[in-house]
Amino acid sequence: MSEEKRLKIAIQKSGRLADQSLALLEKSGVSLAKSRDQLLCRAENYPLDVFLVRDDDIPAFLANNVCQLGILGQNAFLEKQALGNGKFESLSQLLPLGYGKCRLSIAVPHDFDYKSIQSLTGKVIATSYRGLLAAYLKQHDIDADIVTMEGAVEVAPRTHLADVICDLVSTGSTLVSNGLVEKEVILRSEAVLVSNQITDPVIAGLADQITSRIKAVLRAENSRYIMLNSPTASLDAIKAVLPGSASPTVMPLQGRDDMVAVHAVCEEGVFWNTMEALKANGASSILVVPIEKMLD
Ligand code: PRP
Ligand code: ZN
Prior knowledge:
The chain has helices at residues 18-27, 58-63, 74-83, 130-139, 173-177, 201-222, 235-241, 272-280; strands spanning 7-12, 40-42, 48-53, 69-73, 92-96, 102-109, 124-127, 145-148, 164-169, 180-189, 191-195, 224-231, 249-253, 256-266, 284-290. Helix 3 packs across helix 4 (130-139). The radius of gyration is 25 Å and the shape is flat. The protein contains eight helices and 15 strands. The protein is α/β, with parallel strands linked by helices. The relative contact order is 0.14. The protein has three domains: 7-99 and 191-220, D-Maltodextrin-Binding Protein, domain 2; 102-189, D-Maltodextrin-Binding Protein, domain 2 (3-Layer(aba) Sandwich); 223-290, Alpha-Beta Plaits (2-Layer Sandwich). The structure holds 1-O-pyrophosphono-5-O-phosphono-alpha-D-ribofuranose (PRP) and zinc ion (ZN). 1-O-pyrophosphono-5-O-phosphono-alpha-D-ribofuranose (PRP) is lined by residues 16, 151, 153-154, 167-174. Residues 15, 55 line the site of zinc ion (ZN).
């Protein structure tokens, strides 16, 4: 019997994206044996193996076809591409995943007299993102020195290793606690699904299937099912308020000819002000429920 072909995906082992990446795979119907210490985790119910690695290593895994899919921060992916001398050019971003949002920014000490990007001329900038920073400086025609650091970039100005920094900012609390102020955003980033060029048709089919499932999970997570009762006379006004819903289902209410029930899938946020606007237009008994799965 020939060996079953298995798709391989690499995700971050620990760190910001780890838990949500694993959860996303599980929501996509892949159940994994829970031994997180291992490098390789085998799915029990799908021909998929999951590599748990450092996010920095994922582009190389893809480029060498150790895996065909990867989930990593766009920041890490684009940095590898920027420094890779074409090595990672054949990899492609399939879709943004909506979590792990952060930005790569230039930040300066409080007492630094920052007027514009020109203020960086002749300065020393500490970063773990040499490739992206160098491209940004070049694009703005700024001549500055870059010091590469693996971590603890935020302490570089205090220790006089650099004048300013270029680092990831998420909540901003690292900057605040180090007396730094964000001045330029170089890149807005989030987790992305990346693939290499898959030649095997069986593996390509599996990759497509997992990608579609992930898309469906993300869509469902962003969508809500709304049910409400509407006066027949204000149906058009109510429909106009329902966010991102093409054609709601309208049903009679037994014993009432002045009211109908309206059900709709809303693919945009349903917030309190949406509910209040519905109510102001005459809607009653408004229910908003999460959607678990969605497939067209
Ligand atoms: C990043 C970055 C900052 C911090 C910013 O480090 O280097 O130190 O996150 O996040 P905040 O704005 O929410 O404070 P990370 O935790 O990824 O660790 P590393 O620097 O060791 O890679
Ligand atoms: Zn990292």
